[in-house]
Amino acid sequence: MCSSNPVDKLLGMCTTANNREIIEPRIIQLVRELTAAPATDEVADALKPVMEQVVDQAASSSQGGKRLRALLALDAFDILAGDVTPDRRDAMIDLACAIEVFQTAALVHDDIIDESDLRRGKPSAHHALEQAVHSGAIGRGLGLMLGDILATACIEITRRSASRLPNTDALNEAFLTMQREVEIGQVLDLAVEMTPLSNPEALANASLNVFRWKTASYTTIAPLLLALLAAGESPDQARHCALAVGRPLGLAFQLADDLLDVVGSSRNTGKPVGGDIREGKRTVLLADALSAADTADKADLIAIFEEDCRNDNQVARTIELFTSTGALDRSRERIAALWGESRKAIAGLELNSEAQRRLTEACARFVPESLR
Amino acid sequence: MCSSNPVDKLLGMCTTANNREIIEPRIIQLVRELTAAPATDEVADALKPVMEQVVDQAASSSQGGKRLRALLALDAFDILAGDVTPDRRDAMIDLACAIEVFQTAALVHDDIIDESDLRRGKPSAHHALEQAVHSGAIGRGLGLMLGDILATACIEITRRSASRLPNTDALNEAFLTMQREVEIGQVLDLAVEMTPLSNPEALANASLNVFRWKTASYTTIAPLLLALLAAGESPDQARHCALAVGRPLGLAFQLADDLLDVVGSSRNTGKPVGGDIREGKRTVLLADALSAADTADKADLIAIFEEDCRNDNQVARTIELFTSTGALDRSRERIAALWGESRKAIAGLELNSEAQRRLTEACARFVPESLR
């Protein structure tokens, strides 16, 4: 329960904790409702068991997220909209959930593309369905369709929520644009994997560009935009502000994620250290290292990344080169500068000092304290 | 060009031919616009070539359809709405195109699930992209994402169109429900493939149920519903009428498609005769044959369909059994009865006799004349 202790209020932690408790069960409830067959007709008895497996998998795949995006949307709305009717806040809660449902949809397809058997420590959706129906081909097909169903579900959640909020049409448009941006980002992410390593400046530029489309779009820009629109801000102004704050913040978030993959403990990110290097992922870190490396080190790095896979020694050597070339420091500088840009944009929003402080705090969750 | 000859008008052929000429280029235009990156940001130069390949493939995959669904939507609108402003008709044209874009999205994913290399006589989207980027894994990934992008695009087209038509929210809801129904239908279609052949009544029932979700939903029910709503009909009444006319019509369409696969010439359907049998597809024809067969024939059929693939002799033997058991005649009876049901529902719509005749004609295109 939310305490009325002024210290809690000052810290702003209580709202966020409460919001998380509200969001989590609501996501599962919405996913169960909207991945099941609609009430427009019956499902034949013989087909119900498979339908139930898909709905159960939808719920299972929806669990375990950090809910950073929904929390940013809902916290920003609470800060910007102030006291609103319960119905309007309920609509905003669902809209925040829609972003998380969209993320699950994207991850389900991402795991099929990457042929990943694991997600958040559990079997990935298509892998779990392969096991459930004892068929690789049918299980993968069901996984692909589950991604489709979830992608449609999040738009339907948005449609229902937006009809109960101001800026209805702009909200629907913003959500669809976000979805399109991420899908384009996934295409560009695949394109980066085919980018030659011989031109590191182009690679750094391309990687940052992918971050804008694939990550910043739905992680920070859309949550802020949806909150601003739902709080009644004019669409043009809302887009301008969401981009000014959310674009650098989203880039910083992804850069920090990539940096933690190299320097962080596996406890922090839930992934083994150097996983991106092992997979041969083309990151800004790699581009910065290639840019700063001398001829011999550059040739070494290119040779390591042009192999089909990398062993422990090669991962260790890469981390050594990321450090010695200054690529890690360069990323720290990039992150700090982007966070500064985002803070400055928040300061320009014409909020009272309390609102500005709370919004800064909500945004700060996307950048680890040591990197701000 | 549309002639003013009264015989042409009487036949109603002119409008349909003209509508087809309007729809075709508009689909390509919308697809090119909405599969490209949105104007919200730049795409890095190094990544543009792949983005262009995806947009070109989106356009290519969008070509060659019969446009039956868009034509039904637009013809029904013209019949029901009468004279409207050019802007309202343009909005309805785009809404009709959205159904075709959705179909392309669904087919792109369907081809990945079925591992089909061909579609409409050309390489399927994922297969073409595999060849274009010289990588199976990345090409398939791009194909999967292209399906996602097209699925989002058709909803954006709908959003823009619906905002210029009456019943805006009901139109958006109807489109999303259609999309969800088809996606559920694809899941159920995969489930049917796992249904045992030992209970043919359950199989016939399950197959017809899949037709409702996977085919009737977007082939006949949604085109009629979108037309009725865009013409200003009340949502409840529109849903009731679209279902009454479109449900039996869509089932008849799919039954006829399956029947033509067995008895039709490859010229008519663009597919080799017996293709469904060769693939081992669980159809209503198979269920009806199993129901009516004597013990020996039933065992024969089950043995043929439980194998991994079927040769020419087995296909011929199956067609023989579909004929001798009366399954083909049973399907003809089913189709005629469903078409009769659809006609009766049209007659109950309280249209003037000219509108009733034209709507009957628009619906009749879904059932070959010899089977009505």
TrEMBL record, chains A, B:
Gene3D superfamilies on file: Farnesyl Diphosphate Synthase
One GO biological process this protein is involved in is:
isoprenoid biosynthetic process
A Pfam entry, by short name = polyprenyl_synt
**Keywords recorded for this protein, A-Z:** Magnesium, Metal-binding, Transferase
Q: Does the keyword Mitochondrion apply?
A: no
Recorded hits in InterPro entries, A to Z, give: Isoprenoid_synthase_dom_sf, Polyprenyl_synt, Polyprenyl_synt_CS
Molecular function terms, GO-annotated: metal ion binding; prenyltransferase activity
Give cofactor(s), names only: Mg(2+)
Family the entry assigns: Belongs to the FPP/GGPP synthase family.
Which protein is depicted? Polyprenyl synthetase family protein
The organism named in the record is Bifidobacterium longum
